[in-house]
Write a structure and sequence with these properties.
With 242 residues, the chain is α+β, with helices and mostly antiparallel strands. Strands 1-6-2-3-4-5 form a six-stranded antiparallel sheet. The longest helix has 23 residues.
Length: 242
Amino acid sequence: MLAGSTLALAVLAWVRWPEPVPEPVSLAPTEAEILEDLARALALMGEVGRCAQDASCGALDPEYTLQIAQIARWQLGHPDRAFRDDCSGFVSAVFTEAGVEMDGVVSSIYDLAAVHGTIHWSLVPRVGDVVFFDDTHDRNDNGRWDDPLTHIGLIVDVEPDGTAVYAHAGTSSGRGFGRINVAQPFVRRTAEGKDLNTYLREPEPGDPQVAGYLSGALWVGFASIPPDLDWRTAPPPPESWP
């Protein structure tokens, strides 16, 4: 499974879905952008390898992960005013309340997880994992789907079929729960009526012809947060907040 996930990431780095091109503007990716995507995919391959060999990627203390989930559920309705009221502020507040100091934004939390070797692409996450997403909004306002690491959530429950429930903040609907099923990323709801993936982005004119709006389609990875590692970063300037 690990090798397959790694290969899929490398392939996806080369594939750019065609975008509708209004005349006379061309939205085709440049060679530099393609090479940048490939470099990121190769970096992810290295992170997968480290995670596979690193004990910190293994199962965490169930009492710790349960505590994380409980705090996350509580803070959905009781925001910690000492932290930003956005997705990364919410995640940082939850872990800090649990005794694991954190003050990052989505990209810095991801970077720390990469350094610690705790990023993983399992089809089924674990309670207490954080979940990362790309392109949940047009952060740079350029009308293109080129915004990595724009959202983060925290896994609070995993159902028997692999569907995970995550707590998150900083969305247009406020704080709440989302759902993600990595094995069926483009399925909103099954024929039986079970919700698998939550919408994280609304369709807009000019979107690529093949665009994913569900949490599974925008997902880029999970990371475990072992409490014995350093998760604190220097507070970034407000203009870099997602």
